[in-house]
Write a structure and sequence with these properties.
By secondary structure, the chain is mostly beta strands. The chain has two domains: 10-86, no CATH class; 89-207, Macroglobulin (MG2) domain (Immunoglobulin-like, Sandwich). It is built from one helix and 18 strands. The termini are far apart.
């Protein structure tokens, strides 16, 4: 069964008051239907060429955009017209060191300036625990972003052995937490060589 990337597919997900259809709404119209604004954790999902809209009193949502916001993998089988959703369990841990038994030594989630107000530069280790990966993937990577959303570190690994559970450790050197705010670590999966990377887990380090 050949699985292709999902293009513009929508999926009916939730009722928004059965039997209530409006000719227009505050977000405009799409093909004569009322457009819908969708927030995930108070952040608006990116609008695709086919936006969210209301039909027969139900919200029809763009699955690709929603999947990215919910950090799940989506594949599309055009032959059987089937959308396949995968949600691997990915846990990210951050520590100053890793012990010989892979234990976390001095884990942290916050970085503070010294008593002179100087930012801290650190070496640390990011450890990823992955399980329930029920689909083959091409590769994965971890990105670190500063509070402005700029990628400041990245590590990419090809995953050819098809394991559904594994640990990955990434040593990170010389990160200067010179900005206040949230630094994000993002675990991303590339389903196949033709696909882009999809985020499936995220962790935050707060810099004060």
């Amino acid at each position: 069964m050949k699985v292709k990337r999902l293009a513009a597919i929508t999926l009916t997900l939730a009722a928004l008051g059965a039997g209530m259809v409006y000719a227009s709404g505050p977000w405009g119209e799409y093909e004569g239907f009322t457009k819908v604004r969708v927030l995930v954790n108070n952040e608006e999902i990116e609008e695709e060429d086919v936006p969210a809209f209301v039909i027969n009193g139900r919200a029809v949502l763009p699955l690709r955009s929603l999947a990215n916001s919910l950090q799940v993998l989506v594949q599309w089988d055009d032959e059987t017209k089937t959308a396949i959703i995968h949600k691997p369990n990915v846990h990210l841990f951050v520590a100053q060191r890793i012990g010989k038994d892979d234990s976390l030594i001095t884990p942290f989630g916050k970085v503070t300036r010294d008593n002179k107000g100087q930012s801290k530069t650190m070496d640390f280790v990011v450890s990823a625990q992955v399980d329930s990966l029920k689909t083959a993937i091409h590769s994965f990577k971890i990105e670190m972003l500063n509070p402005l959303g700029t990628v400041i570190r990245s590590s990419e690994t090809v995953q050819p052995d098809g394991k559904d559970s594994f640990w990955y450790t990434w040593p990170v050197e010389g990160v200067s937490f010179d900005m206040t705010g949230e630094y994000k670590l993002r675990f991303m999966v590339r389903p196949d060589a033709e696909s882009g990377f999809v985020p499936v887990s995220e962790r935050t380090i707060v810099s004060e």
